[in-house]
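Before surveying the methods themselves, let us examine one representative protein, pairing a chain with its fold in token form.
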Amino acid sequence: MSQASTSTPIQSKTRSDALAYLCLVLGVITLGIALGESFNLAKSAHFIGVITGVIGFVISMYAQMTSTNTRERWILMPGWILSGTFAAVNFWFAIN
């Protein structure tokens, strides 16, 4: 008995690529909010940076576990690192 897949390889690849680019974008947004400390952003903006970073981190963890090729991982890892690291930095700026 064979198992039938509900998605084609093209749909799966497109979804994986979209997740990879989404986490990279969320990581860059989190970085930008953390760098906004030098422009005296409000503490609420840093809480938004924390939320954005956590969402990017969680999405990148899922995408990393389901990625199928090295090209996606080269996009995922910077997003994962940026999201996680700068979520913590934004948290630090938000509580101080």
Q: What stands out?
A: Residues 2 and 87 are 44 Å apart (CA to CA). The chain has one domain: 11-95. The chain has a mean pLDDT of 88. The two ends are 60 Å apart (CA to CA).
